[in-house]
Predict the 3D structure of the following.
Amino acid sequence: MRPGRGLRITGWLVMVPLGVVLVVAGLVLRSAYPTHQVPSESMRPTYGHGDMLYAEAIEPSEVRRGDAVLVSVPEWGITEGLTLKRVIGVGGDRVTADDRQLYVNGEPLSEPYLFQGDPIGDAPGFDVKVPEGRLFLLGDNRGNSLDSRYHQDLGAGGTVPVAAVRERVADSPAGSVAAVGGFFGGAVVLLIGFGLGLAGWLADRSARRRAVPPPPPVPYAHA
């Protein structure tokens, strides 16, 4: 094997393809497990304003009661980005509230995540039957959250379509960490691969030059 050929094979045929695979995998994971900064105080104390949020892209059929979700609700006047709220009621649920307690289907809802343990805030009581394919959303900070309670004038009890959900808050940052690690790890592997390939090419070229015999001397011709 010529000098440098092993480096070129390792670089071009092993490291570069591996790096490309890792970078692409990182990008795919990044789209599946995005990160956000919490945009408001409406989900305190669970998520404070400015906190880093790890999310996962989900299908509408995967939304469950109790999920913290990121939704697109331009009809609420939020025309840019996503807002973070908790799913309280899904299609078919009846969500009601008096001046002390929130109920789902007639049962008091246990909500250990509430800010200062307040399930109502300063909102008036309500009684909403959630239509199929829609969600009733509230913030964990009931005293400082513009949510379904304050949009009942839009119809459907202030609920939003399930299709408005773009992402769900992930239980752990594992997906996002893997995405970042895959992307940057792949970039490093790519650089190493290109470096090995170039080093091998230069070494091989230098060896060929040294191996070429000098041309024979031209005999001196007498006039």
